[in-house]
User: Fold this.
Amino acid sequence: MPFKALSDFYRVDAPYLKVVLPKKYSKSVGCYVSKTNTIHLSSGEKLEDPFVILHEFCHHLRTHDRKHRGTEKYANKFAMDFIEAFKPSRKHSSHVSYK
Assistant:
């Protein structure tokens, strides 16, 4: 289950995942459908894009009683902040310089 760790951390049910978009979202790279509790992606390649996955997971988090309570701006920020927090820093790099 790809969302288990995130869902456990945020104490929410894990969404389902499908690599196919609903017709009305055919021009998107991803979407979250609250009615089915499903994150849809446009292609299998998007499974490797943490921004898309986290952006749509944010929509999952921000949906209550099947009503969306978030914005695209907030979902973008959530994804970027999450990615930034887990980027390896140069300070803790395994690269050793012998000058």
Q: What stands out?
A: The first helix runs from residue 4 to 10.
